Amino acid sequence: MRSVALIDSALAAAVSGEKIAGLVAMAADEGGVIYESAFGRRNVSQPQRMTTDSVFRIASMTKAITATAAMQQVEQGKLSLDQPAREVLPFLADTKVLLGFDANDIPIVRAPRTQITLRNLLTHTAGFVYDTWNEEMARYAKITDLPACRTGKLESLTAPLNFDPGERWEYGINIDIAGRMVEVASGLDLETYMRRHIFEPLGMPDTSFIQRPEWDSRLPAIHARQADGSLQPMPPPPPAGADREFYPGGGGLFSTASDYLRFLQALMNDGHLDGNRILKPETVALMGQNHMGNLDVQPLPTQNPLLSNPVNLFPGMSKKWGLSFLINTEAGPAGRSAGSLAWAGLNNTYYWLDPVKKVAGVFMTQTLPFADHTVLHALDSFESAVYKSIE
Predict the structure, then answer these.
(1) pLDDT digits 0-9 by tens, 7-52
(2) Catalytic hit among 19, 63, 319, 320
(3) Considering 35, 54, 60, 319, which one is annotated as catalytic?
(4) Is residue 63 annotated as a catalytic residue, yes or no?
(5) Contact 42, 50 (CB under 8 A)
(6) Is 96 a catalytic residue?
(7) pLDDT score of 2 more than 60
(8) Which domains does the chain have, with CATH numbers?
(9) Active-site annotation holder among 35, 171, 260, 351
(10) Helix and strand counts by DSSP (H, E) for the chain
């Protein structure tokens, strides 16, 4: 009980004074769930308490699930990590590298020197970038009215590259394109595919791209951090329409902490959970390896401070990317081992999976901008308390 009290104390301190509106945190080791609790409120302007069954907009935490779907297709021989992606998605043959803009704001482009592969996409080395963190892409999207991937419009996938495939790392719409490859290779939309091959086998009943009316009372408000540090509830984003042409695998899922932890438990257990296998052990091992060679993950300077702070997780440490996870190459300051896998979602949702110490954690808030310092401090406190509890 002392170990649970230690984690409780860390999280209670994190939300005190409404520094964070509310959070749900869970952790598991090889034996199963070792911690689960909720703190704070769903909305700082309303009395309802946060509950462990709260449904979160997990944004880019979708990416690891999409990568899992892609690797299932690789196992079946329907996709290959190193085949030209345009063999699956012919429109990629027309993708150009953006060099800049002329005096009339017309984009200057050229053909890429190398082919885009699924491995490039899963490691964010294909050349696609996000306008939230890339100035040129923000300018391009504004000039051309390019829709965002979250709209589900296929036109959003016709964005230019910012550099040649394999040249460097930059975070971008790569996993949306990988998800579209899964849709084409499998013949199923991503919602149906994931439900059949990941969510139902793992017992993840509250994970979906489609917002359900029965979730209304369980959806926390997204809170915007104000200049004085206070939090302001934001109007709920409108549900995605039924007119979307694809499901964006780079973001867009709703999920609970318990559902997402089951996904991490399956990966921690070499691809299976409770008798259901989603990946072969060798595939899970492959996904946790460095697939970007000598390249390193780079800091992300923000172009939209309302959505994201500058991002530099584990500053001063060389970081790699797997299929499709951030990999810390040295032990983390809060306890995770070198070689652990992690990532996050725009609304300050986070997870990590430590394959050495066999522990995984999920930390859910609904806070903007991303990389909020208060939330990151609370995440470190949670992680540190989890590791102390299993010592």
Answers:
(1) 999 999 999 999 999 999 999 999 999 999 999 999 999 999 999 9
(2) 63
(3) 60
(4) yes
(5) yes
(6) no
(7) no
(8) 2-74+188-390 (3.40.710.10), 77-184 (no CATH)
(9) 171
(10) 10, 16
